[in-house]
Every structure is written in structure tokens, then in C-alpha cells.
Amino acid sequence: MSDTTKLTAEKRSDFGKGAARKIRRAGNIPAVMYGHGTDPVHISLPGHDTMMALKQANALLTIVIDGDEQLALAKDVQRDPIKPVIDHVDLVVVRKGEKVTVDVAVHLEGEAAPETVVTLDNNTLQLEVLATAIPENVVVSVEGLEAGTQIHAGAVELPEGATLVTDEDALVVNITQAISEEALEAELAEAEAEAGIEREESDEEAAESAEGEAAPADEAPADEA
């Protein structure tokens, strides 16, 4: 079962931007909780504790209102674009035994074969899991894998009880051959030439060109005996 963070909330009856600003000035976060056909409940959450809890993706919360406890997941978290604060939270009510659809992070493990590049094409997978058993991540091992290897969503080992919602053919990990510095320089030069860009020689390149163009001095003929 997922660990839950208990947050004590207060019901609120004042709405609008002015009321929300007042709540935030008091160090709290305006929120709304809904789901299972119930009327939305507008609440105020403790600022610091809520921010700490929501650092973990798909955190399961226990919201306490007037002594009653309710399990909930953060459906939408609106953050200030400048300040490190949360402006508003939408919470969806969940129940024990209920399954929910969530995006779970993909965590790469191990080292691929030498001279390869590992690209994570999908950093999350959408899974259907029990609300009380949401995994922190799914682990994909790339240990020793060679260039040309591709791992698709359907091949990823999922936690027990989880069902894949993401398309099975979705590319998750792509392993390619690393490009050497010389090949990269050649590709760049070719691209610049096609674009009509004249590349200036570096001091080192200019020195090498000058050395190559310098003709060796002719040796004087040896005196005849």
C-alpha cells in the first residue's frame, strides 16, 4: 500500500481571486476536492506540508476535514510561474480497492555497451493501478545493451497488479551508436557547406595549413671532389 500523507484542511466559503490571495498570504493553499458523484468541496490546505507532499508524483493524500478522513490524489497542481509556490490544487477523491490511471516515471538502470547513446523517448508510462498501490517509478535496465536495441512499452516489466495503458508499440528507450568527434566535425562541415556558410579556420587549423603549404628548402648540391 502506498504511504499516505495526512493533511488537515479547512472548508472555505469565500471564492474568487481575492479570497485565494488572502489564503495564500496566510501561508495556505486554496484547493477543491471532488469525485464519485459528490459535490465539490472547497478547502484550504497547509502550505508547507502540502508542498512537501506534492514533491512526489502521484502522492496519495489523506485529507482530514472536520475530523473525517478522505483519500485523494492531486489531479492538477497550478504553480506560480516565478515563485516556488503552489497557487491551487485540484484533488480527486479515491477509495481503497479502486483503480486509477496515472503517469508513472521511467527510471533507467545500468550501463549500455561502450560507445553507445541511450535516449529515453518516453519518460513516463500511463498505468492503471490500485489507488493505494501507485508505484514511484518503473525500472528499465539497459545494462550491456548494444547499439540498435529498442525497448517498447509492451516489453517493460510492470509492478504487480499494474496494467499498461500506454500503447504497447510506443518507443521507450532507443540505443544508438555514438558518433565520433571526427564524424561529427565532418557532418557539421558538410551541413555548413550545403547551407553556403563559410567556416573560419581556427588558429590551430590555420597553423596546420601553413605548415602543409610550406615547401622544404632545396639542399645545395655537394661539392665535387
UniProtKB/TrEMBL annotation:
- Which GO MF term does the entry hold, naming one? structural constituent of ribosome
Describe the task this protein carries out: This is one of the proteins that binds to the 5S RNA in the ribosome where it forms part of the central protuberance.
What is the source species? Humibacillus xanthopallidus
Pfam families hit by this protein: Ribosomal_L25p, Ribosomal_TL5_C
Top-level taxon of origin: Bacteria
- Residue stretches making up the Large ribosomal subunit protein bL25 L25 domain: 7-91
Q: InterPro entries attached here? A: Rbsml_bL25/Gln-tRNA_synth_N, Ribosomal_bL25/Gln-tRNA_synth, Ribosomal_bL25_b-dom, Ribosomal_bL25_C, Ribosomal_bL25_long, Ribosomal_L25_dom, Ribosomal_uL5_bac-type
Q: Which GO terms describe its cellular component?
A: cytosolic large ribosomal subunit
Q: Name one GO biological process term.
A: translation
**What is this protein's record name?**
Large ribosomal subunit protein bL25
**Annotated PANTHER family:** RIBOSOMAL PROTEIN L25/GLN-TRNA SYNTHETASE, ANTI-CODON-BINDING DOMAIN-CONTAINING PROTEIN (PTHR33284), RIBOSOMAL PROTEIN L25_GLN-TRNA SYNTHETASE, ANTI-CODON-BINDING DOMAIN-CONTAINING PROTEIN (PTHR33284:SF1)
Assembly and interaction partners: Part of the 50S ribosomal subunit; part of the 5S rRNA/L5/L18/L25 subcomplex. Contacts the 5S rRNA. Binds to the 5S rRNA independently of L5 and L18.
